[in-house]
Structure formats: C-alpha cells, structure tokens
Amino acid sequence: MGKGDTRWFVHDRFGMFIHWGLYSLPARHEWVRHAERIPNEAYEIYFEMFNPDLFDPKAWAKAAREAGMKYFVITTKHHEGFCLWDTKYTDYKVTNTPVGRDLLREIVDAFRGEGLKVGFYYSLLDWHHPDFTIDRIHPLRDLPPEEIAKLNSTRDMKRYAQYMRDQVTELLTNYGKVEIIWFDFSYPGENGKGRDDWESEKLYELVHRLQPGIIVDNRLDLPGSGDIETPEQFTPDKGMVDAQGNPVVWEGCQTFSGSWGYFRDEMSWKIPRMCIEMLINHVSRGGNLLMNVGPTSRGYIDRRALDRLAAYGEWMKYNSRSIYGCGTAPAEFPAPADCRYTWNPETKRLYLHCLVWPFKHVHLENLAGKVKYAQLLADGSEIRIREEKTDNLNSHTPQGALTLELPTLLPGQGCEVPVIELVLK
Ligand code: GLC
Prior knowledge:
TIM Barrel, 7-stranded parallel sheet, binds alpha-D-glucopyranose, 5-stranded antiparallel sheet
C-alpha cells in the first residue's frame, strides 16, 4: 500500500479515462506505432495535421458528469511521446501543432468546472524521445541488431528519467490539485524496462512531495508504491486481496470498444446494458470503474461513446445510490442467482441488482427479520416482503430467508438493470 488518500476514491467509484493524442488521427489504436513499426519521421505527419477544430472540453466534462462519473484521468502523454500540455522540456507538444494551445489546461478547467476530480496518466514509455532506448516493444525493434546497438549507444535512460521527473514536476505544479497520477507501465526482464530504468523511487518521492496524498497506480514496478490495483480489460470475479488475503483498493479500467485511443473501424462496441452491468460488477466486488473514451482528432467524443455515456446517465439518475459510497456486501448475505449486491455501510442499505428479473419472487438468504423496508429504487415503490414460511408450495419461503414479492412488469425508467433497495433494521 502506498501513501495516497483513497477515501474519496472508494466512495466515488466511477470515473472517466480519456485517451487522446496524435494516435486519434490514424485512428487505428493508440499502439499503432508499435503494431506498424512506424519510425518518428513517418509519424510526423500526424503532428503536422493535429488541429481539433471541434474541441469542446466543456461538452466532454458535461457528458462525464451526466453519466455519473466523479473523476477523470487523461493521457497527458501516451507511449507515442506527444505532450498535451505546454511543457518546457520538449518541442513535441501540443502548442507546436496547428492548434497552438495548451489543451490539457482547458480540459482540466472544464472538468473541474463540472465538479470532477483530476487525474493524470503519464506514460513511462516514450517512443519518440531520443534518449529512450530501443527495447522489445519499441517501434524500431525489428531493425538489424547492429543498427539497434548503434542507435542505443547514444541513448541515455538516465537523461530520460530526469526528463520524466521534470515533466511530472510541471504537471503536478502548474495544474492545481491533482488527485491521481497514473504511470503506465513497466515490463521488466529481457530487453524490457522497469524500476531501474524509470528510477521509480525518485519519481515516487517527487510525486508525494509535490502533491501529498495523491493516489498513485501500481505500474511503477516499485513494491509498496501502488495505492490501487489496476486490472485492465477484464472484470475480476471477486474482490481483490493482498498476499495476506486482505481486501485492497482496486479500479478496473475498461473500454467501450477494445482500444483506448479512437479507432474508427472497430466493431466490438459493448452494448449499453453490458456497460451498466460492468459498473455493478465492479462495485459489488469492491472496485471502482474507470471507463474510457477516445475522442476523435476533430476533438469530439463520437456518437457511439456518447450513446453509452447517456445509458449510464439514464441508469445512474435513478440508481446512483447503489453505487456511491457502496462496496461489497457482508459475506453473511450471499446474492441470489443472477443478482449482485452492493452495500452502503453508512446507511446500512443493501442493494439487490437483478441482472435477470425473477418471476414474482426472489429469496434472500439470512435476511429474515433484518429488513425494515424494501423498495424498487427506480421509482421508490414499495416491494412487499414476506418472512414467514407458508404452506403454499408456489411461494415457499426458505428458512431464514426473506422473500420479496415482485411485480411482473417494471417501470419504464431506471430499470435497464433493476435495483431493489433494502433498508436494514
Ligand atoms: C496499457 C496500454 C495502453 C493503455 C493502458 C490503460 O498498458 O499500454 O495503451 O493506455 O494500458 O490501462
């Protein structure tokens, strides 16, 4: 565990990841330089062409807030090395492109204006920097070994590590309070890079000196530095724990469509309902969800992403009480089939999410005698409860369980995944 203050984080539960850089122009994955082995010279065209004329960060921030998101994490620099702010340490920055402005600042202002907390993603990899040595995932990795050796002989990772500290100092000094810093990523071992290359220890100290209490992710390859575990592109099937079996703070980072940067031709967009289920699954297992958008090179969030954000908004408008301040339910209450619980320990309310709507009844183990009131969260309508065992075989209530009597039809709003709020005695 690191030194970050995660109290607000485990309450807020839901954030927006934003991947935006030059890779939004080729629009075929933020790793396009890696996949297509693109050298700096050939990538230069995207720098020359970057001019997001429809950029409207207030619209991004509004979409995030309306979706129910409480914080955001933006790529200040991704593996391609392009910097979205006006850094003093390289010319490879947004202010030297046709748009000519510090867009990071505008984004930060807009999201703060909508009440969201600020997080910065900063890539440890940098495929553009002249001191970053060619390793096993670098775009130039397939050059003849002699050529790589020659190129690497003038590259100096010590200078690069200093460059990172200088840039992180800018980011954590000039943009007000930053609540999260997301370093990405380490790949130690054969021809890879890890803590010795990044000088992770120094970086970590610097970060805490500049922004005490900031949350740091777990990708610095520095044991003990991570405040959060960051499973990516899968949902853990239960709460995450440390080596001793104690629950840890975790945040799943997920995409709507598979890639992080804008990918025009990608067809694997998750349906809105799956997106909602993912949020529920994360929180019910004690995690946060950081859901990604990859804005286009014109500077807007495309329709497919907006539709999914709107679906979150519609659901969260009625059900956010089952998300904010909530986490895993006490083990004594196992969730029925096809259902997920979340639990708010402050209000002592248990939330039953029905991924499949049961016909007429659902039995809740170990809850007999413990529930004062139950309601459908979407419209605040009472759900009648029954605790006694009856002789009627069709509506048998198991010993120790509480039975909810459910309507056959659900109201028209807030029920994409219906939630029943149980107020415990
Ligand atoms: C990765 C990828 C990347 C993405 C990130 C998000 O490690 O390198 O492109 O930014 O995960 O978690």
